[in-house]
Amino acid sequence: MKKWGFLGLALALTLSTACATSTTTTDDAAEGGDAPAEGEAVVASGSRLDAVLERGQLICGVDGGIPGFSCVDEAGAYSGLDVDVCRAVAAALFDDPDAVEYRRLDSTERFTALSGGEVDMLSRNTTWTISRDTQVGMEFAPTTFYDGQGMMVREAAGIASLEDFSGKAVCVETGTTTELNLTDQMRKLGVDFEPVVFQDADAAYAAYDEGRCEGMTSDKSQLIARRSTLPTPDEHVLLEVTMSKEPLGPLTVNNDSAWFDVVKWVTYGLIQAEEFGITSANIGDFAGSEDPNIARFLGEEGTLGEDMGIPNDFMARAISNVGNYSEVYERNLGGDSQFNLDRGLNALWTDGGLLYAPPFR
Fold first, then answer.
1. What is the mean pLDDT of the chain?
2. pTM score, whole prediction
3. Residues 333 and 307 in one domain
4. What b/e string do you get for 212-238 counting C-beta neighbours within 10 Å, with b at 16 or more?
5. How many domains does the structure of the chain reveal?
6. Hey, CA dihedral for 5, 9, 13, 18, is it positive or negative?
7. What pLDDT score was predicted for residue 19?
8. Are residues 261 and 317 in the same domain?
9. In Å, what is the CA distance from 226 to each residue of 65, 79, 222, 238?
10. Do residue 85 and residue 101 come from a single domain?
11. Residues 6+ apart with CB under 8 A from 334
12. In this structure, are residues 58 and 100 in contact, taking their beta carbons and an 8 Å threshold?
């Protein structure tokens, strides 16, 4: 079996992470909001931004069961790259990364929860596609993780390619791009396989672990994360195949540019902070910078925040409390985590990756 080289990822499986399976419930999100304070830009009437500011808390939809992206432990504490995006938005608005209420959502209910106002945003390993951007009515913020769909099998099964799945079963989560990509790939190859679909990812991985299907398919990052939670992770391998492009990132509901702008630019800000070399540890060294680009970025000059209806130092708050993209990546997926995943395509554009933020000016 060839080693998987996609994104240049390396996996350390000496540790395991367990995510609690219990879900949390919240009251419906509040509506409305007071007028902006004097000196702040006027936000479009009825924007979700008004509701979030009045509530004083962000309600963020997550998966909650993917180590490294969004995981909740037995004490109810959330962690992961997707979770840190939520925390960064909360920090930008309230100077408090813990001003977040998390709502666990499965793949079939996430868009309904967002469009219905149950959550303010999704940060839930969701792929940006044209149909979701148009017909479903979502608005996608910058990609925070470039991924691709893979296939996990038991090494002892001797399965080396998708063609080997003729007459075999594959576990897959329904309501996802994963399910559609799997069908397309097998149809293109002329492989007659049996899809075993599940509404919940936990159920899908449990079925795979029980041997009810020969393969488990999902985003490669999720397969790596979930493999670490199996009883014998070393017995499972990823095939040398990439079935799709999977740009993952946060999103908001369509037709609310005021709120979308906040989520979008806070996300871009995590990337830009890394490019500037600004971290949670050294941000104080950049106070009073003579570089106008950094002064604007940190809110010491200009009105970039006020133009969105939020404080000018919104990115200084986010970086101080959460860190830049590199810090977020390293503690959740990189060298400071159990996974030790190489950045690969998720490196800055200056380092040969795809992460690129438009100018803050």
1. 89
2. 0.85
3. yes
4. ebbbbbbbbbbbbbbbbbbeebeebbb
5. 2
6. negative
7. 67
8. yes
9. 9, 15, 6, 12
10. yes
11. 340, 341, 342, 343
12. yes
Residues 213, 299: one domain? Answer: no
Which has the closest alpha carbon to 105: 68, 61, 60?
61
Can you tell me the distance from the alpha carbon of 220 to that of 225, in angstroms, rounded to the nearest whole number? 9
Is the confidence at residue 20, as pLDDT, over 60?
no
Burial class from Cβ neighbours inside 10 Å (0-12, 13-18, 19+) for residue 317 reads buried
The token duo for 44 is 């479009």
Q: What is the CATH number of the domain that holds 236?
A: 3.40.190.10
Residue 194's pLDDT band (boundaries 50, 70, 90)? very high
- In this structure, are 281 and 137 located in the same domain? yes
Round to whole Å and give the CA distance between 177 and 198. 14
Is residue 259 within 8 Å of residue 47, measured between CB atoms? yes
Region 20-28 average pLDDT: 39
What is the domain range of residue 228? Answer: 149-244
Residue-wise DSSP of 132-171: HHTTS-EEE---SEEE-EEEEEEGGGT--SGGGGTT-EEE
Q: Are residues 133 and 260 in the same domain?
A: yes
Q: 25 lies in a domain?
A: no
- Beta strands per DSSP E along the chain: 58-62, 65-66, 70-72, 78-79, 100-104, 121-122, 138-140, 145-147, 149-154, 169-173, 194-198, 215-219, 236-238, 246-248, 251-253
